[in-house]
Specification:
Number of domains: 3
Structural class: alpha+beta
Strand content: 35-45%
Distance between the termini: 37 Å
CATH topology of the largest domain: Beta-galactosidase, Chain A, domain 5
Largest sheet: 11 strands, antiparallel
Number of helices: 11
Shape: globular
CATH architecture of the largest domain: Distorted Sandwich
């Protein structure tokens, strides 16, 4: 997928054998804004401890923080080290994804590899790789195979992230939970990643992990003895509350890596990347989320022609009639896929259910369902079929059902309720993605799984949940926090609703239209609880009665909106409050505005449009006077690069805009 590759090395390797234990090394990003410092020095009673820090534009982001591992057997890999070699290099490459939020990404960084060895027996070896990108810093550990250690059994990874003050952060403790805006000192163990921290009004940071493939998942926990003490000091009138905090390696507001179980591995072992992003706004962080893709390996699939983004409607009646009605609806409404959800092969929670045969769960549907007939009907009309399979069947039947589904002509599989977190299940899940690729099947992962950039290497991993989407009836504030935190790590399957009653209760329909732009997902599920009028009535199971879709004029926006993009701009954004995002596909631009808390009018300059070219904007806004059940007004107006639109949103509302060249607009 590469179009331009310029790999070059600068600085050349520095062979620094037998360096003293205390030695600091610095690394800067290509633009000079990110600075990483690594140091090996004595700390109290222990010699040769490992420290790093990160600054952005001269402002400390991560203060001096320690690195190391606690092993299940033997002394920790944390101290007694000396540097034996430093290698510096640089990398600059532009690569094209199969799909993405941009048509190309620049992978540009300076790198420092630090080779370490214990000064005394058993003289174990370890290396640290640091990268400084314009978007942030990243580092990982490598344990080579060596005479003193051929296997490793990690009990804890002790990677610290120490901040210089009790900054504001947004915390959540499950992938589908509700975020809380709190101080760092209020965080509890098990905080999800990525975690966003506001350093200043013009400085935001995010910490997390990338390239998690066969290692235990990392979350965050407060460093023992620091947060509670700082909280007490902050609440007191003692002199300690009024003085500057002690050096970060003594106290401070720190987090530490919190692995879900241990790690067992034959050497060599390279850990996932730990990253620190920094930018002047939440919107800039979101624009820079391709950092995680850059930290993953290039595409491993030779022929990617079968991997196709698109919009999806869920078939909720589990009947032949309902399936064909969804196919017809998809053709009419510009969708590309129909997904058969839980129940098509039996009770998803029953270990006896067989995912290689159609056997509708009677609690969800009375049927009948001729799945082969629906697949054939869909194929004739250019619509792909996706099948949901619960992890119970996946774990015992994966190697059987993947080639079978390929034979059936299925386009992809939705992996449901997968086990996540431990090294075992992390490895199993990514192996399941690779196995699906071998059978040319695309994948959507539900429920707690959060991505770390693996869709660059295996782009058949189209999307994943790991998000409190519309199924959970989220408040707008939570969705607008998710947008600037969870979506830093990759696509999110938000299960967008449109006609369901929760839309009127929690938000507006223009706000729902905007989600298809703001919440990036190459497979974008629309009309989550809805069914076409030609489908049978839905009774029981998820979604209850399932409202029928209509023909409201604004649905033309869903018809036209893509799910993959050539360019992305975050125009406005405040975590938990509002967002305005513009994305380009070809010559057209789509803009989504989402709001929470209070009514707002925001200026949207259209300077990203081509100069000396005329466009037509179709604006979809909430208007209670419109005589439809969705109350969305459609306005058409000419615009150009000099236009500044006024985007007005009610307290829980939104707005969607489609801008097309005037000569290309379909009347």
């Amino acid at each position: 997928m590469k179009t331009l590759t310029t790999l070059f090395s600068i600085g050349v390797a520095l062979c620094l054998l037998a360096l003293p234990a205390a030695h600091a090394a610095e690394l800067q990003s290509p633009d000079g804004n990110i600075a990483v410092t690594f140091d090996v020095r004595d700390d109290g009673s222990e010699k040769g401890r490992l420290f790093y820090s990160v600054a952005w534009r001269g402002k400390p982001i991560i203060a001096e923080s320690q690195l190391g591992f606690t092993l299940k057997e033997g002394p920790a890999l944390a101290g007694g080290f000396k540097i034996v070699r430093l290698d510096r290099s640089s990398h600059d490459e532009t690569w094209k994804p199969v799909y993405g939020e941009r048509s190309s990404y620049r992978d540009h960084y300076n790198q420092l590899v630090v080779e370490l060895q214990e000064a005394e027996a058993p003289r174990r070896q370890m290396s640290l790789t640091f990268r400084a990108y314009n978007e942030g810093a990243a580092f990982c550990h490598t344990l080579p195979k060596q005479p003193a250690m051929e296997r490793v059994s990690i009990a804890k990874e002790n990677t610290e992230f120490r901040f210089t003050a009790d900054h504001t952060t947004w915390a959540v403790y499950s992938a589908q939970g509700n975020y809380a805006k709190v101080a760092l000192s209020q965080l509890k163990p098990g905080c999800e990643r990525p975690t966003v921290v506001q350093i200043a009004d013009d400085c935001y940071a995010a910490i997390g992990e990338a390239k998690l493939v066969d290692y235990a998942r990392m979350k965050f926990a407060p460093l023992a003895g620091t947060s509670s003490r700082r909280r007490k000091e902050a609440d007191s009138d003692s002199p300690a509350a009024k003085v500057q905090p002690p050096p970060p390696h003594v106290g401070g507001y720190g987090l530490v890596s919190d692995l879900t179980g241990g790690v067992e591995a034959a050497l060599p072992l390279t850990t996932p990347w730990r990253f620190v992003m920094a930018a002047d706004s939440p919107g800039r962080l979101l624009e820079n989320n391709f950092l995680l893709l850059n930290l993953n390996d290039p595409c491993a699939i030779a022929d990617t022609s079968w991997i196709k983004p698109g919009k999806v409607i869920r078939e909720v009646t589990l009947t032949t009639t309902g399936g064909k009605a969804c196919v017809d609806f998809a053709v009419k409404r510009g969708l590309q896929y129909v997904e058969f959800d839980a129940g098509w092969y039996g009770h998803e929670y029953d270990d006896a259910s067989d995912a290689s045969a159609v056997n509708v769960d009677p609690k969800r549907s009375k049927g009948p369902l001729d799945l082969q007939a629906v697949i054939a009907y869909a194929k004739q009309r250019g619509i792909g079929i996706i099948l949901y399979v619960n992890r119970r069947a996946l774990e015992k039947q994966l190697d059987q059902i993947l080639p079978l589904y390929r034979k059936w002509g299925v386009a992809g599989v939705k992996y449901g309720f997968v086990n996540v977190g431990t090294q075992q299940w992390t490895a199993w899940l990514h192996d399941a993605v690779r196995k699906a690729a071998a059978h040319q099947l695309m994948v959507d992962i539900h429920d707690e799984y959060r991505p770390t950039g693996y869709s660059r290497t295996y782009p058949n991993l189209m999307t994943q949940e790991g998000i409190a989407g519309d199924e959970t009836s989220p408040a707008n504030t939570n969705t607008l926090t998710i947008l600037f935190s969870r979506l830093l790590c990759g696509a999110a399957d938000n299960t967008i609703c449109y006609y369901d009653a929760r839309v009127d209760r929690l938000a507006t329909h223009a706000y729902q239209l905007a989600k298809a732009v703001c919440l990036y997902s190459p497979w974008q599920f629309l009309y989550w609880y809805d069914r076409p009028p030609a489908a049978p009535a839905k009774t029981g199971g998820a979604g209850g009665g399932a409202p029928t879709t209509g023909d409201e004029p604004e649905l033309e926006f869903y018809n036209a909106v893509p799910t993959a993009w050539d360019d992305t701009r975050v125009i406005h954004g405040r975590i938990g409050e509002f967002a305005v995002i513009a994305r380009r596909s070809g010559a057209e631009w789509f803009i989504g505005g989402m709001n929470s808390g209070e009514a707002r009018t925001l200026d949207v300059p259209l300077g990203f449009l081509a100069r000396d070219k005329k466009y037509i904007a179709r604006i979809y806004s909430d208007d209670p006077s419109v005589p439809t059940r969705t109350r969305v007004k459609v306005l058409r107006r000419p615009v150009d690069a000099g236009t500044v639109l006024k985007l007005t949103m009610s307290a829980q509302g939104g707005q969607a805009i489609r801008i097309a060249p005037a000569e290309d607009e379909v009347k």
